[in-house]
Amino acid sequence: MSIAFSQASSARIQAAAADGEARDARLYDLTIYAQWVLAEADGREELVAFIEERFTPEFRIAFEAWEEGDRAERGPMMMDEYVPSGTLEAEELSARADAKFDEALVNNQRGDNYSLLTVLFALVLFLTAMSQRDLSRRIRLALLSLAVFVGVGGLAILLTFPIKI
C-alpha cells in the first residue's frame, strides 16, 4: 500500500512538472503569436517572417493548419493540432498516478480486511478461554458454540481473500 501511494505521489509530481513545461511552452507560443499578430497588422513582412522562424515545432503545425483552414478558428492555439510539449506526458503521468492511487486504496482495504480478521480470530480465542472458566455448563457451551461459529465465519471470509497478490 505505501509503495503504491509513494509511486502515485511520484507520478503526480512528475505530472505537475510536465504540466508546468506545457504551460511554459504555451506561454512562449502565446507571446510569439501576439508579436506575430502585431507585426502582421502593421504590415511588417520582414518581422512576420522573422517571428515565424521562432515558432516552436508544435505551434508551427497548428499555425499551418490554421492558415490552411482560412483562419476560421480564433487562432492557432485553438486548433486540435496544437499540443505543447509536455502535455501528453502530463496526461500519461497523471493517469499513472490515478491508477497507482487506486491500487493503493485496494491494498489499503486488503490490509484493513486482514486486520479485521485478526480481531475476529482474537475474539474466537477470547470466547474459547471464557468457555473454560468456572461457569454454568449452559453458558460455557454457549460461549464455545459462539467461538466455533465466529471461527468458521472467519475461515469462510479468509478463504475469499486472495492468496497471491
The multimeric state of the shown protein is: single chain
Largest sheet: none
Number of helices: 5
Structural class: mainly alpha
Strand content: under 5%
* Poorly predicted ranges: none
Shape descriptor reads rod-shaped
What is the count of structural domains? 2
Radius of gyration: 32 Å
Helical fraction equals over 70%
The number of E-state strands comes to 0
The SSE order reads HHHHH
Compute the average pLDDT: 91
User: Ends: how far apart?
Assistant: 12 Å
Can you give a write-up of this model?
The protein is mainly α. It has 2 domains: 2-87, no CATH class; 104-159. Helix content is 78%, strand content 0%. It contains 5 helices and no strands. It is rod-shaped. The termini are close together. The mean pLDDT is 91.
Task: List descriptors.
rod-shaped, 165 residues, mainly alpha, 78% helix, single chain
Short synopsis of the structure:
This protein is mostly helical and 165 residues long. It has helices at 2-41, 45-52, 57-68, 87-131, 137-159.
